[in-house]
Structures are given as structure tokens and as C-alpha cells.
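PROTEIN DESIGN WORKSHEET
SECTION A - STRUCTURE
LENGTH: 150
C-ALPHA CELLS:
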């Protein structure tokens, strides 16, 4: 399949934007005594909390032993609370502590602040147009994946 020049340029730009966001985020995480996997665990927990380890395993595609080490560290650092489900004592649930929620919010604000600085040259109409274009691309990517890449 021959791709047009614009597709290649767009692909490179998206990869370079992602690379810069990830690099900046990693530096900020390091300054705040977090690793990328720990940050991602916090992020996954906050979306559906309380969650169990199976939920995290499904979302993160990590070995259970690796995930357990990460969660243990987050519990030790008082960023995550671990407790038994009152309806089913066999199930262990996880949720963020106030400290964990504050740390996650801080890290997301740092990352989004970095992105906001990069968007400073755009006016509101350009930002809205960019949002619509990105939403359209994302919607199309999801549809293509759901159709099996056809």
C-alpha cells in the first residue's frame, strides 16, 4: 500500500508530540518520586475505584507479580488504600487515598500545563478546530479497529 506524503507527516508529528509529552511526564514523575507504572496504576484506579487486582491486570497487561509489587509500594507510600470487599471478603479492593488523589491530580496538571504552554500560539477557534479534528481521527481509528482493520 502506497501512503501519501501527508499521512507520513501526520504520523511523525503525532509520534513526536507523544514522545515529548511522555519525556516531560517522566521527568516530572521522577521529581515527584513516582515511576511511570505507578502513575498508570493510580490513573487506572481513579477511573473506576474501587477496583480489584484483576481489573488492573486487564487494563495494564502486566504480570500479577509485577503489579503486586507496584501496588504494595503505592500502599506503603500511602497513595493507595487496600481493603476487603464487605460483600465478598475474598475480594481485595483498591482506591486512592487523599494523598494519592492529590499526587495524581498534581501530575496530570503538570502534564496538561506543559501541553497548554505548547498551545499558546493557537486562538480559541484554532483550539476548537484542533479538538474537532483530533476527535474525528480518533473516532475513525476506533471504527476501523472495530471493523477488523478493513
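SECTION B - SEQUENCE
RESIDUE ASSIGNMENT:
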Amino acid at each position: 500500500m502506497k501512503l501519501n506524503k501527508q499521512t507520513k507527516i501526520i504520523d511523525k508529528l503525532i509520534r513526536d508530540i507523544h514522545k515529548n509529552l511522555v519525556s516531560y511526564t517522566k521527568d516530572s514523575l521522577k521529581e515527584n518520586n513516582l515511576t511511570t507504572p505507578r502513575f498508570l496504576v493510580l490513573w487506572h484506579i481513579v477511573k473506576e475505584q474501587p477496583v480489584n487486582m484483576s481489573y488492573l491486570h486487564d487494563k495494564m497487561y502486566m504480570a500479577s507479580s509485577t503489579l503486586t509489587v507496584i501496588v504494595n509500594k503505592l500502599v506503603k507510600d500511602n497513595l493507595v488504600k487496600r481493603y476487603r470487599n464487605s460483600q465478598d471478603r475474598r475480594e481485595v479492593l483498591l482506591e486512592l487515598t487523599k494523598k494519592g488523589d492529590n499526587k495524581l491530580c498534581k501530575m496530570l496538571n503538570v502534564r496538561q500545563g506543559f501541553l497548554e504552554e505548547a498551545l499558546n500560539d493557537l486562538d480559541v477557534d484554532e483550539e476548537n478546530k484542533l479538538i474537532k479534528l483530533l476527535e474525528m481521527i480518533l473516532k475513525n481509528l476506533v471504527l476501523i479497529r472495530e471493523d477488523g482493520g478493513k
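SECTION C - NOTES
The mean pLDDT is 92.
The chain has one domain: 5-118.
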